[in-house]
Structures are given as C-alpha cells and as structure tokens.
Amino acid sequence: MKTRIPVVALTLGALTMPLLAAAQPAEAASIAPQGSPVACHGALSVHGGRIVGAHREPVTLRGMSLFWSQWAPQYYDARTVDWLAKDWKVDVVRAAIAAEGQDGARQHFDRELAKASTVIDAAVANGLYVIVDWHAHRAYPEEAESFLTAIAEKYGHLPNLIYEDWNEPLRDGVDWSRDVKPYHERMIAAIRAIDSDNLVIAGSPSWSQDVDIAASDPLAFENAAYSLHYYAATHKQELRDKGDAALAQGAALLITEFGTVEATGDGPIDHTESEAWWDWAEARGIGWMAWSIGDRDESSAALKPGTPASGWTDDHLTDSGKLLRAKLRELAGTNPACQPAKPAIR
Predict the structure, then answer these.
(1) What angle in degrees, to the nearest 10, is found between the helix axes of 271-284 and 237-248?
(2) Could you tell me the pTM of the whole model?
(3) What pLDDT, in 10s, does the model give residues 73-111?
(4) 157 and 24 Cβ atoms separated by less than 8 Å
(5) Does the annotation mark 185 as catalytic?
(6) Considering 143, 145, 164, 168, which one is annotated as catalytic?
(7) What is the pLDDT of residue 29?
(8) Active site residue 168
(9) In-domain check, residue 25
(10) In total, how many domains does the chain have?
(11) Residue 320: domain span
C-alpha cells in the first residue's frame, strides 16, 4: 500500500517530511492539523490514575478498532483513517496487527509492519492518536519485542503513538503475576529503551478483564495503563465492578476493544447494556474503541460485506456501525477545550 503523505507536507511541500520525522512531541503536536486531537492535547501520560494530555487535563479518547489485519487488509488504508477522522469524528484508531492465526505477523513481519505504518502515517496526517495493538491471545515475546521496537524506532518520537503489547491473554492456566506481568515488563523495558514516554496499554488475563487483579500487583512503569475489554450482551455489571475495583487501586484504564453484541462477536445489539457501559466509561473519563472496522458477516462488524475503504453511506453500515457512528459524532468535541499543545509535565 502507498504511504499517505501527512497533511502538512501537502501544503508545505515534501521538504517538510524530515521536520515531521525529527520533531519532538510538543513540536509534532504543533504540526498536527489545527483543532485535531493531537494538536489539542499533545503527548498523553498517566497522572493520578487518569490518562491526561500535555496540560494535565483528562482526555477521553473515543474511536474505532480495525479488524484483524490479515483478514481485513483493505481497511488498513489511509482513506479509511481519513474517513473515520472526518466523518466519524474519532480521536483514535486502533490497528489490530494480527500476531497469530493463519497468515499473521509472525509469518509476514514486513507486510504487517507496512500495514501498521500506513495506519500510523494516516493518523499523524489527521492529528489522531493511534494504537498499535499486538493482537494475540498467547505470548510470543520474541516476535512481539521485534515488532514493537520496530514501531518505536520509526514512530516513537511522535505523541500520536500508543502501544498495546498484548491484546487479550487467555484465562485458563494464565496468571497475572507469574505469566502476564513479566511479559509486559519485558515489552515495556524494550520499548522504553527507544521511546521514553508514550503510553503503553497492558492486557490482563481472561481476555483483558482481570484488571482488578492487575491493579493489585501493578506494573512499575510510568505511563502504563490497563486495557478493559467487554461485549455488552455478555459482560455486564460484574465486569464494571471489576473496573471500579481497579480504578480504586489507582489503575488507569482504557477500553481498547468492546462490542455492542455478544462475546462471540455476533448476535443482536444489547442497547440497554451498551448505554450502561457508555455511561459508566464517560462518567469515569475512560476512553473506548469499538470492534470493529471490518466487513465480516457478523453483527459486531461496523461494515457490510464488500464495503469500500471510505465514503460510507448508511447503506454500507450495519446496525452496530450506525449506532457507533452516531455515538462518536454525539460525543465529538466533549474533551476539554482545545489549546496549543505544550510539553508534558513529567
């Protein structure tokens, strides 16, 4: 896929590309399009159990996750990111880089790295935050470290970047303190050797639902938060209670994946629980990314089969897609007022 040139380069010429590549976080935020999320909030960090911007104001990121990269490659496209920014009004996109499964990043490192780069470049051009998600259920530490450090070397100087180093550790036979925490410690140390401050989001056992357990034995790194995943028709108040328990212990949370339907990714939308989850997250300033921008024939997919990379009308959207677009547009601009970004206070 052809890499999209950032918007600033389109207006100032190709000579501005080295400036973007070399920019430090506050400088890169100033290069982001005026009024965009990154221009408004700058480099993100964790402070007082919250994700905050460069002004120490809480920031609630809202956006969409792309589907597994090897199974929906047509949406790892600058046109898709452009459309999500302009029409869906997202603050963040999540690139679910398939680490396992047939034909994933473990077999095709360079190809999947190129897909991640396409999404990151388009996010930067639009002033969006972008999560690079090592989308795996099992630990592959060598491959994960190679991939995430390659991303850090290429993009770690930009405030747009957020790492998610393990999507969803499994439940059975997996322990936070014994298995998952040491994995995160290795990944974060490797990232921090290159990128000293961008957010890292850590998954927990039981498909990133044991956030209360993780919070009781936290990672000893700055700017580390924990992912909380749910599917509204399956996971209800009991999981929200686990989230509250994690928050009470000082953990910062980010919902990097959720669905409006069952945990299978299919079934009818649970409107009541979807609204309960949104109310819960918004009241606590917890950001969220919905699953997914894909055209798989299942109800969690936002797009109908055969939908193009951009220019979507209602006819292209599933019921879930229509609901998610409406919610994103409803909440767009409800973060603190946009201000010129300044260096983060560490």
Answers:
(1) 10
(2) 0.90
(3) 999 999 999 999 999 999 999 999 999 877 788 888 999
(4) yes
(5) no
(6) 168
(7) 67
(8) yes
(9) no
(10) 1
(11) 57-331
